[in-house]
Amino acid sequence: MKMLVAVQFFIISLLLTSSFFVLSSADSSCGGKCNVRCSKADRTHEECLEDCNICCQKCNCVPSGTYGNKDECPCYRDMKNSKGGSKCP
Description:
The protein is mainly α. It is 57% helix and 0% strand. The protein contains 4 helices and no strands. The chain has helices at 2-24, 30-37, 45-59, 74-78. Helix 2 crosses helix 3 (45-59). Residues 1-26 form the signal peptide. InterPro entries: GASA. Belongs to the GASA family. This is Gibberellin regulated protein. Keywords: Gibberellin signaling pathway, Signal.
């Protein structure tokens, strides 16, 4: 009986720990980084997020801050839209 309680405690602890890890690492995803990047965007927030997420998924990075710093991520910096302008906010 004690062994069963110990196993159940271990399983519950493992589940709680893994769910905490998933919640704490959520900000490292594209969505969290793009939310920060687009928080002060001149264009609509939704347009900025859409482009930022496309760029982040292709480049696996988003520059820090709300503007500039694109040298931190050359792929993000060099992506162009159909008109030849910068694709990524």
